[in-house]
């Protein structure tokens, strides 16, 4: 079968990492797991050994056919429910834990879709670069819009790096296993205004934060004060809690 790069079809074949992903998810039998991108079912099989129910979403009908054959008994008993479709378009079922080795090209929209759901824990394999941006803190080279916005929804940590040789075919990049807790690091009253400010600031990276907020307020008809210590800093030096405070001030 020809695997499609455009659909991120890199199969994780090194069992060591599959076991790690499952271990990090701290599964108990009563958990209901959602897996996006089941592929050939390597991770699905381990999940089905650990929990009472797994929902899988897979876009490729060729994989779906194989999955239906491989897991015929689990489908029959209702322990595995396969949803054929695009994870960005189909409604997510109710689940406790999200465990997936996702297609990297949909990392951002899929993560924000996930974060709008109610769940206990997620263990997700991302491209390492994306994972580093997701968990980055102010002052770090990787800190940007994604890092700030994510902190209004969750706490995330990188647990392991997976080398390209663990996959077939090998991707060009390293991957990272990330654990996500749905506990916001910063509390934001109005996420829409917060995200607008963050977007506005990071599209003016070379300007000072004081000027950026002044411009933003002028364009939107808001009033806000930037604390003195942050006025001369650049967007990538501003902690998420400062973005949150300014957004809440105008909300
Ligand atoms: C990185 S592979 C992971 C395969 C397998 N779970 C593993 O651990 O090796 C990503 C999988 O996501 C599927 N996929 C790609 N885009 C998708 C989408 N929008 N919705 C659902 N599945 C998608 C691909 O067909 C592929 O099976």
Q: What proportion of the residues is helical, as a percent range? A: 25-40%
Order of helices and strands: EHEHEHHEEHEHHEEEHHH
Q: Looking at the structure, what is the overall shape?
A: elongated
User: What about the largest sheet?
Assistant: 7 strands, mixed
Mean of residue pLDDT? 97
Q: Write down the CATH class of the largest domain.
A: Alpha Beta
Radius of gyration: 20 Å
Mind telling me which CATH architecture of the largest domain this is?
A: 3-Layer(aba) Sandwich
Overall structural domain count: 2
CATH superfamily of the largest domain: Vaccinia Virus protein VP39
The poorly predicted ranges are none
Tally of DSSP helical segments: 10
- The assigned structural class equals alpha/beta
Q: Kindly report the spatial arrangement of strands forming the biggest sheet.
A: 4-3-2-5-6-9-7
Binding site for S-adenosyl-L-methionine: 10, 12, 37, 58, 86, 101
Family: Belongs to the class I-like SAM-binding methyltransferase superfamily. rRNA adenine N(6)-methyltransferase family. RsmA subfamily.
Keywords: Cytoplasm, Methyltransferase, RNA-binding, rRNA processing, S-adenosyl-L-methionine, Transferase
Protein name: Probable ribosomal RNA small subunit methyltransferase A
Structure in words:
The protein is an alpha/beta fold and 251 residues long. The longest helix is centred in the C-terminal third of the chain and has 12 residues, at 191-202. β2 (32-36), α2 and β3 form a beta-alpha-beta unit. The chain is elongated, with a radius of gyration of 20 Å. Helices cover 37% and strands 19% of the residues. α8 crosses α10. The chain starts with 10 loop residues before the first strand and ends with a helix. The strands form two sheets. The protein has a seven-stranded mixed beta sheet. It has two domains: 5-181, Rossmann fold, CATH 3.40.50.150; 191-250. It has helices spanning 15-24, 42-50, 61-70, 72-77, 107-115, 128-135, 145-150, 191-202, 209-220, 240-250; strands at residues 11-12, 32-36, 53-58, 80-84, 97-101, 121-127, 155-162, 167-168, 175-181. It binds S-adenosylmethionine. The site of S-adenosylmethionine has 23 residues, from β1, α2 and β3. One of its GO terms (molecular function) is rRNA (adenine-N6,N6-)-dimethyltransferase activity. Its EC number is 2.1.1.-. Pfam families: RrnaAD (PF00398).
